[in-house]
Please model this.
Amino acid sequence: MSVWITVELEKSSPTIHRQAIGRGNYGQMIATFGDQLDRLARKKKVTPLGKFTALDPDIVDEFVELGKSLGEKLDASKYAAGWFDPAEGFKTAKTLLATFQANPKSLGKLGHYQPEEIIYDLDLLTKVLKLAAERKVRFRLIAA
Model:
């Protein structure tokens, strides 16, 4: 099962996604290298992407139900994120993209992944958040 990170906008705006990414998909590399990207963000003194991230609501519901079946009391609200200023997210994404493009070793070992795959994801994330910032549409990242 692959994990993806996608941008959810407070006000539905297919135009932002269409203008930024066309029909492409993005987010698998951001999810795969999330911890490394967050470390790099802290090093660069920008907000880590993880601070903007929530779990997909459907996954949260399943997780809470599983917990109940095991006798655990889980609070679904702990796994949800609020809405965030897209300018702050754009600043983070732009900083991560520029840093990684200048030095692909900044994330450490990439395993079998190519730097271009990570650059692709960060570039699309940056484009979506730039358009969201221009239109003042708050966002959150959803892990699914």
Summary: The longest strand covers residues 5-9.
